[in-house]
Amino acid sequence: MNIINFILNIDKYIEIIIENYPFFTYFVLFGIIFIETGVVILPFLPGDSVLFAAGAIIAKTGLMNPMLVLLLLYIAAITGDSLNYSIGKRLGNKVKENKKIRFIKMEYIERTSTFFDKHGHQAITIARFVPIIRTFAPFVAGVSEMKYREFLKFNILGAILWVSIMYGTGFFFGNIPFMKEHFSLIILAVIFVSFIPVFITLIKQLKKR
Q1: In the predicted model, what is the mean pLDDT of the chain?
Q2: C-beta of residue 154 within 8 angstroms of C-beta of residue 91
Q3: What are the strands, taking DSSP E only, across the chain?
Q4: Bigger pLDDT: 208 or 16?
Q5: I need a labelling partner for 130 at 20 to 30 A (CA). Which of 17, 113, 121, 205 fits?
Q6: Considering only CA atoms, which of 136, 150, 63, 145 is closest in space to residue 106?
Q7: d(CA 177, CA 124)
Q8: Each residue of 36-63: pLDDT tens digit?
Q9: 3-state secondary structure 21-45
Q10: How far apart are CA 113 and CA 165, in angstroms?
Q11: Which of 18-27, 127-136, 139-148 has the largest mean confidence?
């Protein structure tokens, strides 16, 4: 199962898992969000589409406690970013000396650093809605030795906003007939909209060059 096939059919995969293993699904959803936000070498997991699809399928099946899922997703997003911050802090000297780190693209670190320069500490919150940068923002915060108390404040705010909007949109609107009939297109639209800030940043960088 490749990642593109998983994303395009995410509603089918999540629905199958929920219908057959509802209790196990709590751990699956927690794991996906925790890993996407917490493991800097895996920035391509489909966090946005997972949240949207999970909300829609949970509302449809009624086999899971939606508020418990929401709470677990909040915890996964907050603790994932905190882990990523710790990794960045530990590897900070290597990054500052411009040494290559295995499995981590320095290009993404530089792009995220530019994002930080533009938005300041609020980038931790804003980055939640930008794939790839979402994964690297807490890492760069750790590298730059941002005070953890300051980081945690924006981390919690970003996690609550991101999870609530993506999961809530799926839960309340994902089962509207039009949405159900065009679920794959909706997922692609969610991903496309999420990547708009990345495209804008790339265009600006190309213009500067």
Answers
A1: 82
A2: no
A3: none
A4: 16
A5: 17
A6: 136
A7: 35
A8: 888 876 666 678 888 998 999 999 999 9
A9: CHHHHHHHHHHHHHHHHHCCCCCCC
A10: 26
A11: 18-27
